[in-house]
Amino acid sequence: MNAQQLGQNIKGRFGPDVIDCTELGPDQLYVTITPESLVAVAEYLYQNEGCRYVINGGTDRRQQRNAFLITHFFAHDEEKIYIAIHTEVAADDPQVDSITPVVPAANWSERETYDMVGVVPVGHPDPRRLVLSDDWPEDLYPLRYDVAHDVHPPPAEGVAPERLEPPEGASVVPIGPFFPVLEEPAYFRVFVEGEQVVGADYRGFYNHRGIEKLGCSVLTYNQVPFIAERICGICGYVHSCSYCQTVERAAGIQVPERGEYIRTIMLELERLESHLLWLGIAAHIIGFDTVLMQTWRMREPLMWLCERISGNRKTYGMNLVGGVRRDITPEVYGDIRGVIDKIGEEWQELAEAIPGDSTLMARLQGTGILTSEVARALGAAGPTARGSGLAIDVRVDHPYAAYDRLEVTKCVHDSCDNLARVLVRVEETLDAIKIIHQALDDMPDGPIMAEIDEELPAGRQAMSAVEAPRGEVFHWVLTGTENRPERWRVRAPTYANLQCVPPMLEGNALADVPISIGSYDPCFSCTERMEVVDINSGQVRVYTEEEFRNEYERPAHE
Amino acid sequence: MIASKLKEAILSLRPGRVTLKYPFEPHDPEGDFRGYPEIDTDKCIGCGGCAAVCPARLIMIQDIDQNTRRIVWLLERCIFCGRCAEVCPEDAITMTKRFELSTDSGREDMVAECEVFMATCQRCGRCYEPATPLDKIMEPGLRQDEIKRGGQDSPYEPIQSE
Fold first, then answer.
1. What is the set of domains in chain A, with CATH numbers?
2. Residues near A329 by beta carbon (within 8 Å), at least 6 away in sequence
3. Measured between CB atoms, does A342 come within 8 Å of chain B?
4. What's the gap in Å between the CA of A126 and the closest CA on chain B?
């Protein structure tokens, strides 16, 4: 089945409700439907077609169409199709049916769309504020075109997030608002009965930076990749890549093959770097700091290698719309092979030591169970999904850059526990080394940047995803006038994976909570597109109530 | 269990000491590292190309009068992408390898500024040729960029009045 056939299926079933149905190649489908049929179409895609929910996005199109555009994105992984379901909601009555009751994974993003654009999801089971700070005015929706990108509403007194009540008889153990292990802001309220976790509530987004707004209001096409790269401090390249691919796809720009190979190599180097970092952190969480020291030692030559290739150890700044800015010259090939082979060797030794270490196994095996059903219902991505037996990997399912010419293995484990997520990453690291070798072997000569002679057309749209170390990064761009996107929507993998945390914690002992949260490599900065906290410094600071309140009530700014 | 611990111990002991004596022994960056952008204000022709591509939007242009253009680089906000150096038609900007940029002498160290005599320039932007239309100057003509560090209540004043 391709996008056209899937479009026919939807038209056949919902005929009069389908206003428009367009494909972009065999792998992208854009369907505009009436608001009344939204829930039915979403349910059909999720239940009958077996699609995975990706994200929801809202666009203020009052100027062009006197309406808000609400878009639900789905992925059909087996058939390699991304689907966007557009619905136009009249500007004078901004509400639309919530699909969360039939597609649970839509929970957060529908709340975010309400926060940012002000379209009410009617029938949402948990319509609490998600993204905006608690003292943000009720009727100020930052992503509307008539709200300035640098608006600073005055702070308010005496506000607090709406909290879930713990089940009867349970006590609340707060973890956060600064997550103690990763030193990033995240606030879990864990409900316990004795040692046993019976539930959890999450409030995050403490430092939302408004990057999507910047991309649609003040930046230009070629400035966005650098801001996109700063969505995450660990895996930023995936975001700039995904953004560039989206714009290239929308405008019909073909990146030269060498450019695609360079992107692939940088992406895999980043995966290596991120997985090494993660294993160290995970070991640190369970008090095994030897592994932290060793993985980070193994990682350092890789950082220097990236500095040599790109000009920076992280945030490579290599991407522009149309290709890459720097070539990987043949003189560096040997260095790359040397560094990754050394990592592979030591990694193999480390990986072989893990199963024999009963202390490690006691902490990992059987803890933090995330069943396949829950993982699918909540749209888990990346190693979190693959550790729960879901064989999804964007590199294989929706190939991009040079991945369609390389051999990529999906590393899947089905024990659904913390150990599974460790093993998935251990195997992926070794696989990444193989992929880099392949890419270096096959790297063609030629230009690295496409020639762009004309301004990009307005009103085009495209989707693109990249398999980040943490899972699927998804971008959607609607091109606009003035040399910038009209709307740019980003979904980071932790956005989906974080929603899996409360069910994952249930039934665990309290002591297993940190490693369970750590096991899906949470990146709060990706999710919130906020400032990254330096995990190297390890500085612990105790806030007084007043200091915390000042910090907490500060309005979002860039 | 014991075998595993032994393996881990060997893995840890083998590399020996790897910690560098930085900052007592300098550790130079690798390859074409992008550090502090050195700006040769004598070469600047005032085209504004750097301001058009800067993702951090830290390059401000003020046309004081028909003949004088002032350009201010607020490098404290620099993200070291090197786009300005890439597009400058006069090669007035060089990405150096300097990365130790802490300063105790005030923010002036991270601000560069120049005034260019533009004669009867129409500010059409033709002296800056973008590689693609995506890098074009969005605001040709006379400009009065607000020199702020961001936000409405920024304490920043133009450097010359300090």
1. 3-147 (3.30.460.80), 211-363+448-528 (1.10.645.10)
2. none
3. no
4. 33
Cis peptide before A94 (omega within 30 of 0): no
Tally of structural domains, chain B: 1
Q: Residue A450: how many CB atoms within 10 A of its CB?
A: 18
Residue at B19 is within a domain? no
Please write the tens of the pLDDT for every residue from A300-335.
Answer: 999 999 999 999 999 999 999 999 999 999 999 999
Interface confidence (ipTM) of the complex: 0.89
Taking only residues 29 to 68 of chain B, the set having a beta carbon closer than 8 angstroms to any beta carbon of chain A reads: 29-34, 52-57
A21 at B interface, C-beta within 8 A:
no
* pTM of the shown model: 0.91
Is B41 a domain residue? yes
Lowest mean pLDDT among A6-20, A106-120, A155-169, B146-160: B146-160
Confirm whether B76 is domain-assigned: yes
Distances (CA, A) of A12 to A6, A8, A44, A47: 10, 6, 12, 17
Task: Give the domain range for residue B105.
Answer: 31-138
Contact A349 B34 (CB under 8 A): no
Q: For position B76, which CATH number holds?
A: 3.30.70.3270
Q: Do B55 and A226 touch (CB under 8 A)?
A: yes
Cβ separation A226–B3 shorter than 8 A = no
Q: How many CA atoms lie within 13 Å of A32's alpha carbon, on the beta-carbon side?
A: 7
Residue of A287 and A268 predicted with greater confidence: A268
Beta bridge partners of B144: B62
In a domain, residue B155? The reply is no
Q: What is the pLDDT of residues A465-485, one digit of tens each?
A: 999 999 999 999 999 999 999
Yes or no, beta carbons of A226 and B135 under 8 Å apart: no
